[in-house]
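Q: Hi! First time doing this. I have a protein sequence and I read that you can turn it into a structure. Is that right? Here it is:
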Amino acid sequence: MSLLNRSSLRELTSSHLDLILSWRNQPFIRSVMYQDEEITFEQHRNWFAGIQENHTKQVKVFYFDDQPMGVVQISVDEQNKRAEWGFYIGEPQAPRGIGKIMGYLAIEYIFHQLSVQKLCAEVLSINAKSIQYHKKLGFQVEGILKEHILKDNRSIDVILLSLFRKDWNERRVEILKQIEGRII
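A: Yes, that's right. Below is the predicted 3D structure, encoded as structure tokens:
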């Protein structure tokens, strides 16, 4: 069976809240986020309520073999046909390469269901793995916000990346072949 057929993006519901909070509070996730303090359940519940009220934001839970593995958050600027995304694989035992499948599904959804022209990302410069991940999906570096945030008394740069729909449409078949060539 195709790896993509074993995967899906589903709407975030209140039934996901405990799991998502446990993922988000893992040190390996927190360390590469803007906000790296542990989140309380009350803060998490308020975040969920805000998502429910804001039509420009969506959160999807990524499933593989009917098991939740990660999260994709999307903010859409409809007027400018632009979106920003953030994501993580939260499941520590997730199969290797699962992030590329999640990225593929999310990008397809963003460009072809939400009809945006440009997808933007902000990645902390200390997160080399995410920067490389974005580049493998076709993102280009657009700029650097120098010493943009403070973490552990260190100034950290933020890398600005983007992917245009026209460029994705040229790369998507190649990326799909890479995904389908994997054995998980």
